Amino acid sequence: QVQLVPSGPGAAKPRVTLTLTCAVSGDCSGNISSGCCYWNWIRQCPRKGLERMGYIIIVYGGTSYATSLQSRITIMVDSSKNQVSLQLRSLTAADTATYYCAREIATQSKAGS
């Protein structure tokens, strides 16, 4: 069973950097560095659908970010703490949202793309 426990300030002021952390337990093999997983950050703005902000593949060290956020977002991993973190810079009112971390199991076709 996988448990994802997000943490952060709850609220942040405009123009500052928001940092959220997701503590992971019960990963594919008990370690966040397992190659089978993508670690995503997703958000839902009020009265809007879900937006996938980006993800990191720890085993390759690769990241992919939504084009609209690319200049402001960083997703990082701390394998020693089994944590995935999101940094979102230069906040505006448009960043008001509920933020989620999520694990995605990589299929062979996706892992090879």
TrEMBL record:
PROSITE patterns listed in its UniProt record: IG_LIKE
Domain called Ig-like: residue spans: 1-113
Gene Ontology biological process terms from the UniProt entry: adaptive immune response
Keywords, in A-Z order: Adaptive immunity, Immunity, Immunoglobulin
Gene3D superfamilies reported for this sequence: Immunoglobulins
GO cellular component: extracellular region; immunoglobulin complex
The protein, known as: Ig-like domain-containing protein
Lineage per the UniProt record: Eukaryota, Metazoa, Chordata, Craniata, Vertebrata
